[in-house]
Design a protein that fits this description.
heterodimer; A: alpha/beta; Rossmann fold; 2 domains; 7-stranded mixed sheet; B: Rossmann fold; 5-stranded parallel sheet; 39% helix; binds thiamine diphosphate; binds magnesium ion
Chain lengths: 320, 280
C-alpha cells in the first residue's frame, strides 16, 4: 500500500475560500454572492480584497440563485456561498429553471455538507444534495477530499463553462493531496493500485478509504483505491477498468445511499461490467446532533465499515 | 405571576442557556438570551397550555411555533422549567442520541415541539396551517410564533404574511425579535430592512411594538393582543431586544450569535445571573 504523507490539517471550506481569493486576483470576471454566512464559507478575504465584486444578499438564498443566474448575462462568473442544505434543497427550482435549464455559468459552492457539520443537527446536515444536483441535466457535481483538492477544484471550475455544484465541509481534515495538483474535472485519481477489491470514495470518506486500505494491506488484502472527486460526469473508464481488474467494488461517501456516488457507480457497472458491490453511505435516514466523529461512527461512515463492506463483497466475488 | 416572579424564572433560564451551550461548546446564546423575557412571559403567564398532558394535536390549547430555531436553548429551558420534561434533560443538549437536537426536532418526541425548525423562514407558514385547522375545528385558542429579524429576509415569510392578511387569520399573534443583528453583522450592514412596522402594515397586519426586556410591558402588550384576536387581522409584535441580554460581554453584538463561552466566560456570565430555581 502506497504511503500518504499528511502535510497539514485544515477544513475543506478554507480551501474554497483561499481558492476564491486567488481567483479574484487572476480572473476579473469572478464575482461572489453570499447569504449571511461569509465567515462560515471563508469568503471574508475575497470580500475584503474585492468589495466591488462581493454581493451580500442577506438570508435570502432563492434571490441569491436568481441573481447569480442574471449576473452571468454579460459575462460574470458568479460563485454563490451558503450551507449545502440552503444551496440545494432550499432553492432547487431556482437552480433548475434559472441556472441548469438555462445553461448559466454559475458555481454553486456549498459548505457544511453531510454529518460532519456536527452539533447543529439534521435540519442542517444535508445528505441528499449530491442526488438532487446530479439529477439536473447540465450540472457538474464535485466533492473534493481535502484542503488542497478543494482549492484546486475551486480554481478549476472557473475555467469550466457551465453550472457546477461544488460540495465541501466544516471540520478540519488531514491534507494528503499535493498543493500543486492540477484539478481535472471528470477525471478520477488512482490513489493506490490493487488487485483484490476496489474502493471508490469521495469527499471526507477518501481519507477513511486510505485508512481502510492500510488495515486491509496488513491482512493481506490488496485494495485499489480511487478518489472520485467528480461524481458527475463520472470517470466511467477508470471505474469500469478497475471493476474488471478487481471484480468487487465498495463505494464510500458522506451522503444517502440513494442518489449518491454509489448509486451512480452501480448504474455504470450494471450497464458495463456488473460485479458485487456494497455501499458505505447513510441508509435512508436523517442525521442528528453529535460530534462529527461520533456521528461518522454511528452512521458507519468510517474505515471500519469500509473494511466490513470489503469483506462482504469479496466473499461474493465469483471466482473464475 | 408578577413581573418580579417572571424575572426570577428568566434569570434561571439565562443560567440554563449559558451552561447548555458551554457544555457542548456550540449553540446560539445571543438570540436565546435576548428572547428569554418574552418566552418566559408567554409560557408562564399568557398561554393556555397543559404541559403535563402534552400531545401533538394540542386541541383547545394555545400553540407556539419557534421559527428562528437556532435559539433552541431558550425554548428547551423554558419548556423544561414549565414542566414539559425533566430539567436534567437539558444536560443532554446537542449531545449524541439526545432529544434536544441542535435545532428543534420532532423525531424523538420531545414534549412541546410540533415541527422542526432551523432552516429559517418556514415557521409562519406552518403556524398559519395550524391556525386554519383551529378554525376548522371550532377551537378558539391562539397560535403564537417567534421570528428573527434577519429571518424576515426570507421570501417565504412574506408569502405567509400576504396569506394571513388576505384570509383574515386573526387567531395568530406573531413576534419578531428585533435585535438588529444577524450572523455577518447588523441588519443595516447585511441587508437593511427599512421600516419594519410600515412593511408589516402594508402587508395588512395589525402591528404593535414592545420592549422585550420590560416584563410589565411584555405582559400588557400580550394581554392586549390576546383581547384583540378575532378582529379580522393577524397581529405582529415588533419586540425590541438586545442580543445577549443579561450577560454584559455578550450584549448588543452579533459576535455571540452562534458561539459558546469558555470556562472563564461562563463563570463571569453565571456571576451576573442569579440562581433562582436551582441549576439542572
Ligand atoms: C434558510 C437558512 N439560511 C441560513 C441559515 C443560517 N443562519 C442561521 S441563524 C442566521 C441569522 C439569523 O438572524 P436573525 O434571524 O436575526 O437571528 P439572530 O441572529 O438575531 O438570533 C443564519 C443566516 C439558516 N439557518 N437557514
Ligand atoms: Mg436578529
Amino acid at each position: 500500500m502506497k504511503k500518504f504523507e499528511v502535510t497539514g490539517n485544515k477544513d475543506t471550506r478554507s480551501g474554497f475560500g483561499d481558492g476564491l481569493t486567488e481567483l479574484g486576483r487572476t480572473n476579473p470576471n469572478v464575482v461572489a454572492l453570499c447569504a449571511d454566512l461569509t465567515g462560515s464559507l471563508k469568503m471574508g478575504d475575497f470580500k475584503n480584497e474585492f468589495p466591488d465584486r462581493f454581493f451580500q444578499v442577506g438570508i435570502a438564498e432563492a434571490n441569491m440563485m436568481g441573481m447569480a443566474a442574471g449576473m452571468t448575462i454579460g459575462g460574470k462568473i458568479p460563485f454563490t456561498g451558503t450551507f449545502a442544505n440552503f444551496s440545494t434543497g432550499r432553492v432547487y427550482d431556482q437552480i433548475r429553471q434559472s441556472i441548469a435549464y438555462s445553461e448559466k455559468n454559475v458555481k454553486i459552492c456549498a459548505s457544511h455538507a453531510g454529518l460532519t457539520l456536527g452539533e447543529d443537527g439534521a435540519t442542517h446536515q444535508i445528505l441528499e444534495d449530491v442526488g438532487m444536483m446530479q439529477m439536473l441535466p447540465n450540472m457538474t457535481v464535485i466533492n473534493p477530499c481535502d484542503y488542497n483538492q478543494t482549492k484546486a477544484a475551486t480554481i478549476a471550475i472557473a475555467e469550466h463553462e457551465g453550472p457546477v455544484y461544488l460540495r465541501f465541509g466544516r471540520p478540519k481534515m488531514p491534507i494528503f493531496t499535493p498543493a500543486d495538483q492540477k484539478f481535472e474535472i471528470g477525471k478520477g485519481i488512482m490513489l493506490n493500485e490493487g488487485t483484490d477489491v476496489t474502493i471508490i470514495a469521495t469527499g471526507h470518506l477518501v481519507w477513511e478509504a486510505i485508512l481502510a486500505g492500510e488495515k486491509l494491506a496488513e491482512q493481506g488484502i490488496n485494495a485499489e483505491i480511487i478518489n472520485i472527486h467528480t461524481i458527475k460526469p463520472l470517470d466511467e473508464e477508470m471505474v469500469i477498468a478497475s471493476a474488471k481488474k478487481t471484480g468487487a467494488v465498495v463505494t464510500a461517501e458522506e451522503h444517502q445511499t440513494i442518489g449518491g456516488l454509489g448509486a451512480t457507480v452501480s448504474q455504470c457497472l450494471a450497464k458495463n461490467h456488473a460485479v458485487p458491490m456494497d455501499f458505505v453511505a447513510v441508509d435512508d435516514s436523517f442525521g442528528e446532533s453529535g460530534t462529527p466523529a461520533q456521528l461518522m461512527t454511528k452512521y458507519g461512515l468510517d474505515a471500519d465499515n469500509i473494511i466490513a463492506k470489503v469483506k462482504r463483497v469479496m466473499a461474493k466475488k465469483v471466482m473464475a | 405571576m408578577t413581573s418580579l416572579e417572571l424575572s426570577k424564572v428568566a434569570s434561571q433560564v439565562r443560567r440554563d442557556i449559558v451552561r447548555m451551550v458551554h457544555a457542548v461548546n456550540s449553540g446560539h446564546p445571543g438570540g436565546s438570551l435576548g428572547c428569554t423575557d418574552f418566552l418566559v412571559n408567554l409560557y408562564f403567564k399568557q398561554m393556555n397550555i397543559n404541559p403535563a398532558e402534552w400531545d401533538m394535536d394540542g386541541k383547545n390549547e394555545d400553540l407556539f411555533f419557534l421559527s428562528n430555531g437556532h435559539i433552541s436553548p431558550v425554548w428547551y429551558s423554558v419548556l423544561a422549567r414549565k414542566g414539559y420534561f425533566q430539567v436534567n434533560e437539558l444536560a443532554t443538549f446537542r449531545k449524541i442520541n439526545t432529544r434536544l437536537q441542535g435545532h428543534p426536532a420532532t423525531e424523538e418526541g420531545l414534549e412541546g415541539i410540533r415541527v422542526a425548525s432551523g432552516s429559517l423562514g418556514q415557521g409562519l407558514s406552518v403556524a398559519l396551517g395550524a391556525a386554519e385547522t383551529k378554525k376548522l375545528n371550532g377551537d378558539k385558542s391562539i397560535i403564537y410564533t417567534l421570528h428573527g429579524d434577519g429571518e424576515l429576509q426570507e421570501g417565504q415569510v412574506w408569502e405567509a404574511a400576504m396569506y394571513a392578511a388576505a384570509n383574515k387569520i386573526d387567531n395568530v399573534i406573531s413576534t419578531v425579535d428585533y435585535n438588529g443583528q444577524q450572523i455577518d453583522g447588523s441588519l443595516e450592514q447585511v441587508l437593511a430592512m427599512g421600516d419594519l412596522r410600515a412593511k408589516w402594515e402594508a402587508f395588512g397586519w395589525d402591528v404593535r411594538e414592545m420592549d422585550g426586556h420590560n416584563m410589565d410591558e411584555i405582559s400588557s402588550t400580550l394581554e392586549k393582543a390576546k383581547a384583540d384576536c378575532g378582529n379580522g387581522k393577524p397581529i405582529m409584535l415588533i419586540m425590541t431586544t438586545s442580543m445577549g441580554k443579561g450577560v454584559d460581554f455578550m450584549e448588543g453584538t452579533h459576535k455571540w450569535h452562534g458561539i459558546a463561552p469558555n470556562d472563564e466566560q461562563l463563570a463571569d456570565a453565571l456571576g451576573q445571573l442569579e440562581e433562582t430555581l436551582g441549576d439542572y
